[in-house]
Amino acid sequence: MQFDKETQVRILRVAADRIDGRPVAEVDEHIARVMDLHPEFEESWQLGEMAVYPQEINGQIVNPFVHTVLHVIIDTQLNDGNPEIAVLTYKRLLEEGMTEHDCLHGLIQSFADIHFANFRSGKPFDHLDYESRLKSLSYEDVEVEEE
């Protein structure tokens, strides 16, 4: 999944299908699952194309589109087992007592930090840096959601 117009259209279509009560295509189930994990984005999806811009949600500035794409990227890594370190880190964080969603957010933060830093400087994604960060990622490094 990319941060592009095609992905924007796809995510907004899934959001519209969910809002209108239409079934979500099997190929878009990852997107729908992320939307289920983030009910706080529901109002944003109703804004259509405006949902791809940062906005204040629950006192934080969030970009629902970017957050959803990052979730789907990590979801895909875990489902495909590639890279294996993502799966191992996810399981290790669960064993440390983190919730599934907080574990996902820990991996997302590591991935996003590398992706956006490298993108801004015109470099490709650094898989070795990602592996290194995931190996050292711990409960203390992850901002956990308040219940």
Overview of the structural elements:
The structure is a single chain. With 147 residues, this protein is mainly alpha-helical. The chain has seven helices and two strands; from the N terminus they run αααββαααα. A two-stranded antiparallel ribbon has the order 1-2. The two termini are 30 Å apart.
Features:
about 150 residues; mainly alpha; 2 domains; two-stranded antiparallel sheet; 7 helices; about 60% helix; globular
Instruction: Give the ordered list of helices and strands.
Output: HHHEEHHHH
Strand percentage lies at: under 5%
Shape: globular
How many domains make up the coordinates?
2
Helical proportion?
A: 55-70%
Give the terminus-to-terminus CA distance: 30 Å
Number of helices: 7
Strand neighbour order, sheet with most strands = 1-2
Number of strands: 2
Q: Structural class given helices, strands, pairing?
A: mainly alpha
Unreliable segments (pLDDT under 50, ≥5 consecutive)?
A: none
Task: Kindly provide the radius of gyration, computed on alpha-carbon positions and rounded to a whole number of angstroms.
Answer: 15 Å
User: Could you report the average pLDDT, rounded to the nearest whole number?
Assistant: 91
Describe the sheet with the most strands. Answer: 2 strands, antiparallel
